[in-house]
From TrEMBL, chains A, B:
CDD domains: Pgbs. It comes from the Bacteria. InterPro entries: Globin-like_sf, Globin-sensor_dom, Globin/Proto, Protoglobin. One of its GO terms (molecular function) is oxygen binding. This is Protogloblin ApPgb.
Amino acid sequence: MSETAIAGYDYGRVGPSPVGKDDLEALKAAVLFGPEDEAALRRAGEVLGDQVEAILDVWYAFVGANPQLVAAFAGPEGEPVTTYLDRVRPRFGQWIKDTCLRPYDEAWLAYQEEIAERHTPAKKNKTDHAPSIDHVPLRYLIALISPITSTVRDFLARGDRPAAEVDAMHEAWRKAVILQVALWARPYAPQLW
Amino acid sequence: MSETAIAGYDYGRVGPSPVGKDDLEALKAAVLFGPEDEAALRRAGEVLGDQVEAILDVWYAFVGANPQLVAAFAGPEGEPVTTYLDRVRPRFGQWIKDTCLRPYDEAWLAYQEEIAERHTPAKKNKTDHAPSIDHVPLRYLIALISPITSTVRDFLARGDRPAAEVDAMHEAWRKAVILQVALWARPYAPQLW
């Protein structure tokens, strides 16, 4: 699916982030994210690029099996809103590619803030006109660092790269996810962020 | 150092957490934390128990080398408050042991809430009468999942256990840290947590 065909995928078309480049550099240092991780993510993007749908299958199955997680996609009766889940999916897939292949520059930072707001009452549901709860609970945003990272290892290992390189790609992926969750936490607690 | 000698270490002497056991179980599921992780943490506690001071040396060196992190221990002039850093250290060491060896029950949940509040304006600095900023920024609380986890692997590997067991202990440690950071995020955004 081409990027332009993804509903609600507005990379490059959102306003600037309140988070500055210096803030980002300080955060990258706290996460131990360095140039070697950027390089490893580029390689991870090559390995994962063809496996995005299979990764999403694993993640959607995990969310679907956990009522406390699927609740973020539920309507007023508590039933999962299928059209909402379906519309988010290609953006989630594109996020895998963006995490690996985009430079972490101002445009990226701006889009992290857009993603952040889409988890909170400011913008949740609006992109997809979804009748659902008004935020993703902060605790699950943080908790998902674990499955979103551990499940990727098998896919990285399918690239026939040496084990040490799989480890490096996996570690870079982990840091990139933690970095993004830290950025996504901002609108939950702007004064204490 | 015995637990009772640790200034401000109030495990078992704080009020109940607003987070219930059901919330904890749901969060553990989201983090993929299961009985095998509990068992691995017990073994990790045996391996790490004698190395706590060396681990703290690594962590304190990392924080000290990062001005954006040491700021949480800085006074009004921006200088690190040494007495504050020194008083926190034995509690941080005890936290390593508690993470590995305590059952994650109501008492543990209550103390997680106490730790959480001590990162926010509700209680930061009070335990140590420290003249410092009134909160640890939420983004660094999340970011520190990375170094607090990656630096522990070498110490786990010094226990002469098989590599697969070191991996299991490390993964359990990682999940336990993510779980606790998720709990510690609560007072930053009580309505959206």
